[in-house]
Structures are given as structure tokens and as C-alpha cells.
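C-alpha cells as discussed.
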């Protein structure tokens, strides 16, 4: 008996694809405010990791410990269910490829998840010569 026959006619790959389509459809159908908030908070979460990195590096002078402290931001990102552009960025593409959403919704998602990271050089991160 094959895996497809045991699972009632749907292979594990088909089930995973359907879950990805549902998740992508849900992410692409969010209103503007929640979409902007998740993008902004994703940047704040990663910024928390960068701050933790610099603090640990400054006080311990240990790059390995500082690198571990950087992961604090990613843990916060996962716990808060915030999003980054690079995090699972193909999930919304699956919903578009399956025909559940259009390209406009995908573009809207990507622009709103990347806008918090648009930074004129030196505005937040100063140049070393300054």
C-alpha cells in the first residue's frame, strides 16, 4: 500500500502544498495596518538582536558570545510572529502561483515588509569615519 493510498488519496507533498497555499493566502489578504506593523516590528526584533550583539561584544570582547546574543532578535521575531522580507518569502509566491491571489497582492506584501529597512546611509548606522 502506497503513502497516497494510506492517507486517503492525498500525498504528504500535496498536503504540504495546500497548507502553504492557505498560509500564503492568509498573509496576502491582511489589511494594511497589520501588514505594516509586522514589517516594522520585524525590523525592531532584528534591531534588538543587533543591540544585544553590540552590548555583549563591548562588555565581554567575545565574538562568539556576541554572535549568540544576536540570535535573541530572531527568537523575538519568531515569538512575536513578526515578519521579515527574507523570512519564508516564497510562501506568498505559492498562493499567487496557485491562482489564489494576484501579483498586486504579492508586490504589496513585499513593499510593506521591506519599507522599514529602507534607510538613507548613515541615518541609523553611522559611518566609521564620523
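Sequence:
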Amino acid at each position: 500500500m502506497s503513502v497516497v493510498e494510506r492517507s486517503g488519496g492525498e500525498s504528504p507533498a500535496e498536503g504540504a502544498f495546500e497548507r502553504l497555499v492557505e498560509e500564503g493566502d492568509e498573509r496576502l489578504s491582511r489589511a494594511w495596518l497589520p501588514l505594516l506593523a509586522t514589517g516594522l516590528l520585524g525590523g525592531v526584533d532584528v534591531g534588538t538582536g543587533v543591540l544585544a550583539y553590540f552590548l555583549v561584544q563591548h562588555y565581554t570582547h567575545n565574538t562568539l558570545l556576541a554572535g549568540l546574543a544576536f540570535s535573541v532578535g530572531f527568537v523575538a521575531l519568531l515569538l512575536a510572529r513578526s515578519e521579515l522580507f527574507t523570512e519564508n518569502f516564497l510562501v506568498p509566491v505559492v498562493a499567487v502561483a496557485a491562482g489564489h491571489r494576484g501579483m498586486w497582492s504579492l508586490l504589496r506584501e513585499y513593499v510593506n515588509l521591506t519599507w522599514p529597512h529602507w534607510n538613507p546611509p548613515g541615518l541609523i548606522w553611522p559611518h566609521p569615519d564620523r
